[in-house]
UniProtKB/TrEMBL annotation, chain A:
The keyword Transport applies. GO terms for biological process: transmembrane transport. It comes from Kribbella voronezhensis. It is found in: Cell membrane. The chain crosses the membrane at residues 51-70, 115-136, 148-168, 199-223, 244-265, 305-327. Belongs to the binding-protein-dependent transport system permease family. Gene3D superfamilies: MetI-like (1.10.3720.10). Residues 111-324 form the ABC transmembrane type-1 domain. Keywords: Cell membrane, Membrane, Sugar transport, Transmembrane, Transmembrane helix, Transport. This is Multiple sugar transport system permease protein. GO terms for cellular component: plasma membrane. CDD domains: TM_PBP2 (cd06261). It holds the Pfam family BPD_transp_1.
Automatic annotation (TrEMBL), chain B:
GO terms for cellular component: ATP-binding cassette (ABC) transporter complex, substrate-binding subunit-containing. The keyword Signal applies. GO terms for biological process: maltodextrin transmembrane transport; maltose transport. PANTHER family: MALTOSE-BINDING PERIPLASMIC PROTEIN, MALTOSE_MALTODEXTRIN-BINDING PERIPLASMIC PROTEIN. InterPro entries: SBP. GO terms for molecular function: maltose binding. It comes from the Bacteria. Keywords: Signal, Sugar transport, Transport. It holds the Pfam family SBP_bac_8. Residues 1-22 form the signal peptide. This is Multiple sugar transport system substrate-binding protein. Belongs to the bacterial solute-binding protein 1 family.
């Protein structure tokens, strides 16, 4: 289906459910019913072919997922209830790992830092990404160059990004960013070396890297908004601000929901930038759940406790995602 | 979701879990069928493609020529322990691992190394007592064969020191004064205040902050944990000696400000760079960096002296490498033979040969005289420091959490000058007590 066929899910209500069609094991059943813009696609999925054909096509991905995702996840779940010693034999400890990690001060402060960082990065990236998207929206050929340039931070490896920012964050007055803020009479700031500013500094790095990604998704969303609505608004005498507020933002609502989930999951699992920039320091001010799990599981070799932390993080992410989905479904229904 | 679909989803989830449990299988080390011809897989913690790897391959070739036993060398530097845990989880460990001696407790508690019968290691009677003692775990059994030792010494930018007109430091006060002069008197003469005294890797990664600080802590008579008469341990970071040492170290960062800025988030590579690039003039470090600084900075630009004596004595951190004979090997005889080769006089001399990266820093074999192999007098500084004042981290079941916790606190103190030293160290002692309790070595 193309974008022009189905302009925006929110503008046009999805086609009515057709209950009783298809069999429960067919993976195309739900998409066939829910998303098909016309009758043609819905009927095509029912014509010819055995029920197992789609499964056959899915098999390679499913096998890979089973081996590289589901089995490790299952093992982590098992390990979270064990004292893990691969060569001496694991012993079952029940919920001891969970009570240990939940009772530890460091986990709670890491959780707090993770939430703060996730919120800061999510909203920061969305705001900056939205502004960027508005700036570079359009058809001109030159814009595609600017868009590619703006997208660069996403494709640069995280290790390079971290090293770059470490240099920019140099804590003396001849550091790059300190020179910049020195122009307006501020600083020098310690940035990642000062417990008061370290978490915010990491969030800035994350926003810088995440915003262009959000920008691309916003651009795709903007392309789906009916131009006629803008024209109508202009005719009615709406200012630029009013057009953004009453046409663009409502039109982008599904995009916001998707971005929110993606960014929140990314924020919850942020590891590389923290590990490379501060490794949780100074004074634990940037310790997030992922770096704590890494330290517990892989540096101190307490894989059971580390797994328990990983399972808790997974549950938190799952709950968040499901909540956003439910909220979204209720609103669009 | 219709009920049938939900049932299906639940069923497949259960299936995944069953698979996962089956994958874990029953633990316990099973005897492995022995094959004395099986090639040995060796992991060494050094930069892949670097000189350390080349040297190790040379050693492996010499071993192969002497015994006909094949050794496959793999060099890994980043996340060495992580990768080893992954192989342990697959129950397919390399046969031999060359890593820091202080990893012993961790590896023993994981059950991934096998006990060493010193009787079957030829030449083990020629090992230095101090080196051998680190291969013994808390239960008195030997796991691993030390093949290399090292201690810390102080590197000084010689040209800077001459410019500020001070002598090589003998005491901590001299050290502070020299560091201050390096920070304030523009020793590189570029007209900018961009030089600092002491280079410190103060990051918490791998516990670097604690690693570095141990030199000063021990020289002041302080300690991380103190052994009691019953062989168990008590936390000792809040004793007056430990507090005084911490305060002194912290003042370098907070009061006299002679430690390089950003130390709190620097692990070793960026810290090495500050010394190499002429931003810091003093660095307490092991001998393995000499080849790098000779090449990058110039041999004539810096000098190697013993670390100045602390309030109590000149104790410095001793470390070393051990050959670990990994569990589940199909060729235990080959493992023993390789360990014997590494500690033999020939093996030690070969490991010390060359000009670049050395696999053997200081010999552990009593019959090998370092001055006969290496004419460079700087090595004697290290050899003397090791022999006279070297001290290893204690052998408790798992030293890593102790190092990590102390590193966290030291890191906090040099990063945040508003923290109260005594309060933080008291908090740390509580944590250490917990850790010792978990490991079953806490004194009542």
């Amino acid at each position: 289906m193309s974008v022009s066929e189905a302009p925006a899910a929110t503008v046009e209500p999805p086609p009515a459910e057709q209950p009783g069609r298809g069999q429960w094991w067919s993976p195309v059943r739900r998409t066939g019913n829910r998303r098909a813009p016309g009758r043609a696609a819905g009927q095509r999925s029912r014509q010819g072919g055995k029920w197992w054909v789609p499964w056959l096509f899915l098999a390679p991905a499913l096998i890979l997922f089973t081996y590289f995702k589901f089995i490790p996840m299952g093992r982590a779940l098992v390990m979270s209830a064990q004292d893990v010693r691969p060569y001496l034999g694991n012993t079952w400890v029940g919920t001891a790992n969970y009570s240990e990690i939940l009772g530890s001060e460091s986990f709670r402060s890491a959780l707090k830092n993770t939430v703060v960082l996730a919120i800061g990065q999510t909203f920061g990236s969305m705001l900056l990404g939205f502004c960027l998207a508005l700036l570079v929206e359009g058809q001109t050929r030159k814009l595609s160059f600017i868009r590619s340039a703006a997208f660069l931070p996403v494709v640069v490896p995280m290790a390079v990004v971290a090293e770059l920012w470490r240099i920019m964050y140099h804590p003396t007055s001849d550091g790059l960013l300190n020179q910049v803020i020195g122009l307006v009479g501020l600083g020098p700031s310690g940035f990642i070396n000062d417990p008061d500013t370290s978490l915010a500094s990491i969030a800035v790095t994350g926003i810088w890297r995440g915003a262009p990604y959000d920008m691309m998704i916003f651009l795709a969303g903007l392309a789906g908004i009916d131009r006629g609505l803008y024209e109508a608004a202009t005719v009615d005498g709406a200012s630029t601000r009013q057009r953004i507020l009453h046409v663009t933002l409502p039109g982008l609502r599904p995009v916001f929901a998707i971005l929110f989930v993606l960014a929140a999951v990314r924020g919850f699992r942020s590891f590389t930038e923290v590990f490379l920039l501060t490794n949780g320091g100074p004074n634990g001010s940037t310790e997030v759940v992922m770096t704590l799990i890494y330290k517990l599981g892989l540096e101190q070799n307490r894989l059971g406790v580390g797994s328990a932390g990983a399972v808790l993080l997974f549950l938190a992410t799952l709950v968040l995602t499901v909540c956003v989905q439910l909220l979204r479904r209720r609103r669009t229904a | 979701m219709p009920r049938s679909l939900r049932k299906f989803a639940a069923g497949s989830l259960a299936g995944v879990l069953v698979l996962a449990v089956a994958g874990c299988g029953a633990g316990g080390a099973k005897p492995v069928a022995q094959d004395p011809k099986a090639p040995l897989e060796l992991w060494t913690r050094t930069t892949p493609g670097g000189d350390g790897e080349k040297g190790m391959k040379k050693l492996a070739a010499a071993f192969e020529a002497a015994t006909g036993q094949k050794v496959v060398v793999t060099a890994i530097f980043d996340d060495f322990e992580t990768k080893l845990s992954q192989r342990a989880a697959q129950k397919d460990l390399p046969d031999l691992v060359l890593n820091d001696s202080s990893q012993l407790g961790t590896m023993v508690s994981q059950g991934i190394v096998r006990e060493v019968d010193l009787g079957s290691i030829k030449g083990s009677d020629q090992l230095l007592e101090s080196a051998l003692s680190v291969a013994k775990s808390g239960d008195g059994k030997t796991y691993g064969v030390p093949y290399s030792a090292q201690a810390s010494a102080l590197l000084i930018r010689k040209d800077w020191r001459q410019k500020v007109g001070l002598a090589a430091p003998k005491t901590w006060d001299d050290l502070t004064a020299l560091a201050k002069a390096f920070t304030t008197q523009d020793p590189d003469g570029n007209g900018k205040a961009d030089t600092y005294g002491l280079a410190v890797p103060g990051s918490t990664k791998r516990g670097y902050a604690s690693w570095y600080f141990s030199n000063f802590l021990w020289a002041a008579g302080g300690d991380f944990i103190a052994k009691q008469s019953d062989g168990k341990y008590k936390p000792a970071m809040s004793t007056p000696e430990s507090v005084a040492a911490t305060k002194w170290f912290r003042d370098l960062a907070c009061t006299s400000k002679v430690i390089q800025p950003g130390a709190a988030t620097m692990d070793t590579p960026p810290t090495n760079e500050t010394f190499e690039a002429g931003r810091t003039g003093l660095y307490v470090v092991g001998p393995y960096l000499l080849p790098r600084f000779d090449a990058g900075l110039g041999k004539d630009k810096y000098e190697v002296v013993p670390v100045p004596k602390g309030p109590k004595d000149s104790t410095v951190l001793a470390e070393g490498g051990s050959v670990y004979l990994m569990a589940g090997s199909a060729n235990e005889a080959g493992q023993n033979a390789f360990a014997s080769f590494m500690i033999s006089a020939d093996g030690q001399k070969l490991g010390m040969a060359g000009q670049k990266a050395f696999n053997v820093q200081l010999p552990v074999n009593k019959t090998v005289d370092i001055t006969a192999v290496r004419k460079d007098p700087r090595w004697k500084v290290y050899a003397d420091a090791y022999r006279d004042s070297g001290r290893y981290a204690p052998s408790i079941p798992n030293w890593t959490p102790v190092r990590q916790d102390t590193a966290d606190t030291i890191n906090a103190l040099i990063a945040d000058c508003s923290l109260d030293v005594t309060a933080e160290l008291t908090k740390l002692d509580k944590k250490l007590a917990e850790t010792l309790g978990k490991q079953g070595v806490a004194a009542s």
